[in-house]
Amino acid sequence: MQPSPGQVAQTGEGMATGAFFIPDLCAPRSVFFMVLLVELMVLVYVLGASGLPAFDWEKLALCSLFVQWVVLLSAALVCGLRGVIRASSLPLVSLCCLLVVLAVTAVSSLAAWRLLPHFNNGSSQAWWLLRNLLVAAVLSGIMLRYFYLQQQLLVQKQQELQSRLDSLRAKIRPHFLFNTLNSIASLIVSRPEDAERAVEDLAELMRVSLQEHTRPTTVADEMRLCELYLAIEKLRLGDRLQVAWDVGRDVLELSMPSLILQPLVENAVYHGVAQLTAGGAIRVSVREDSGTVRALVENPVPETSARSGGHQMALENIRQRLAVLFAARGQLQTMQAGGVFRVELSYPLRDMV
After folding, report:
1. What is the pLDDT of residue 16?
2. CA distances from 92 to 24, 40, 337 (A)
3. For the whole prediction, is pTM greater than 0.90?
4. Cα separation of 101 and 105, whole Å?
5. Are strands 280-289 and 292-300 parallel, antiparallel or unpaired?
6. Residues 6+ apart with CB under 8 A from 155
7. Would the pLDDT of 54 be above 90?
8. Which of 33, 203, 252, 269 has the highest CB neighbour count under 10 A?
């Protein structure tokens, strides 16, 4: 009954304002839990009414039939009304749901009174109907309150996740901008025309990176950031910097968290190729494997590096973002052997924060 954080962020079914809080009662998981919970309630009622030694199996069967009918029919009607009441205010949504349950209870009670003599135990039809309506009203109020509190808790959790993600993104930007400006500064005196072109590339790079909140980002978007950054570094490093891309067209439109691939490429340049006199080649690979996106960045590294601290900070930042977005299913692994540093990240294909 509870959607994932990513789904809450993307679907927006009244969550932003807190107006619409009724879950999808037609979902198989919701139906299963409703049937199970109702049957347990009926079992408790029959146990209390008949006692254990002389357990009334007939009453259990008839009460289960009646209560399950009322609950499932009410859930189906509320589910059908979701599209109509989605944009309504909280009181109106609650009132509509309550009226639906009471109407179904009233009609079902009258029908059961006439068709099932077992329910006619000497009391009048009016008292039978009033009792059922009061029970339905109390239980409906409890469930509506539960749905509302569940939705508020989910919204609060989503806001906390978004704040954490924003904080992690903010840590990446200054580091990235500092490295890029350093590259441009090295060109100003010796190659002013190249420096001017690098500034233009930087402006385009910042413009593209700032679009991350306007729509979901894709592999193609991250590749564009990487290409702009590498174009600036290429002006500084020249032929020392080589890049080999292994990205198929079939993965370009797959979802990818913003600013998660570019920092890996930046690290490959800053901590690897730029520190080697002869330079080297960076290999970037992105593929999809059974619903999981896997991105690999490989680069040559010197035997010792004075910049390893910044390297680990950036990797830890990305690792935390993957943990926030995908929990244990988002992973980042690193390995260094034979003068080559390899980092691979993987995450499931689904909606993201």
Report:
1. 38
2. 18, 30, 64
3. no
4. 6
5. antiparallel
6. 8, 15, 18
7. no
8. 269
